[in-house]
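= Tokenised fold =
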Amino acid sequence: MKVSMACDHGGLALKEHLKAHLLERGFEVVDFGTNSTESCDYPDYARPAAEAVASGECDRGILVCTTGIGVSITANKVRGIRCALLSDTVSARLTRLHNDTNMMALGQGVVGPMLATEIVDIWLDTAFEGGRHQRRVDKVMAIEE
């Protein structure tokens, strides 16, 4: 699986931690930056990472900023993206089972590296349940039309 990743300065440490974990697990990672703690604007990094998922270049995407809010809002502006802001393992599992999310966002100031790693693993390892949930996802995606 090919995973896009991006962050702003407020999410760099967690992005790097998660990137190393994903590489260790054998995932291919496309890193859209930033690679510095110098203040920057999260849409400049979250948007291209989301576009890579929307285009099919990457299978899924993970975004990080201080709260996860800004990057998740940005990603959800890209047609075809369903990005969930996650801070617990139950939501990580259910957003894949029920919503078929293709991106997730985390807040470095909200979750620590151990919890973030567990959230990411659950999110990546959980398949979409389909069935009645597909009808609902289709209705959500039709809003973009």
Remarks:
- The chain has a mean pLDDT of 97.
- The CA atoms of residues 4 and 49 lie 6 Å apart.
